[in-house]
Amino acid sequence: MEPYDKEPHMDWNFSLDHEQEPIIPEPPRPKRSWTNSILSFFALLYKAKVFLAFGSLVVSMLLYGLTFGWAFGIGLAVIIAIHESGHVLANRIKHLDASWPTFIPFLGAMINLRQMPRNADDEAFIGIAGPIFGLFATLLTLGLYEMTQIPALRWLALFGFFMHIFNLIPIVPLDGGRTVSFLGWKAWIIGLLGLVVVLFYSPFTGQIHIDPLTVIILAFIIWNFIGRIKHGPGRDYNAIPFWHKVVYTALWAALMILSIVGYLITGSGF
């Protein structure tokens, strides 16, 4: 008997009694076409609830560009989008259920509030956020004009200042009216007078202009204003700290003065 000097060898190769099932190869996956990729992209946007906002922004850019020139038209849509992003951010901070902005060519944009602000403090916070963002974009545009001397940028800054003068008029549903809604009729009387002046009077020509679009805008604002008076919030809605009222009123006045001064200085050379 030979000495045990190595490990025993075991053969693990054995055959099964039954036949192995044939392996069926998977069919090759079809390559994604550009069409499918584009459709998937738009489906993703729709599910993310930004399809309407994105699509309406593109449509606004196209219509503004065709009407006013591409540099001015695209820039105008961008300033409006930055303005609206301020409202979107404020709504998120205050945890209010609101839609993404829908851009309406030649009328601006609209955000659908599915949940109203809890009080005048929240409404002022949301109302002033848009003009802060929008005026920052307008000042940036004016700075770019000073560096490049591109005429379209100057026109864009001029319109940006005018847009915020109009938007800061203290009457609902404009942002100015929402910012100082706690002042009630004291601000609304001034707002109604200012609205008529801004819509129909040009300080540079000293002439009165009346066109169908401004009449439609005026009618829409007055209709919303009447609805606010009839179905507005109760007295408790405006019961916010006094110093909050002072801060929001001062901030509103500062932005309005900035808009007016910027508009007059930018437009004085035309």
- Share of helix among residues? 55-70%
Task: Encode the helix/strand succession as letters.
Answer: HHHEEHHHHHH
Rounded to the nearest angstrom, the radius of gyration is: 30 Å
**Beta strand %:** under 5%
Tally of contiguous helical segments: 9
- The stretches of 5 or more residues where confidence is low (pLDDT under 50) are 1-18
Key traits:
270 residues; hydrolase; zinc; Peptidase_M50; transmembrane; single chain; 2 strands; 63% helix; mainly alpha; transmembrane helix; two-stranded antiparallel ribbon; disordered N terminus
Description:
63% of the residues lie in helices and 2% in strands. The chain has helices spanning 34-47, 51-68, 70-93, 120-148, 151-167, 175-179, 185-200, 212-231, 242-267, and strands at residues 102-104, 108-110. The termini are far apart. Residues 1-18 have low confidence and may be disordered.
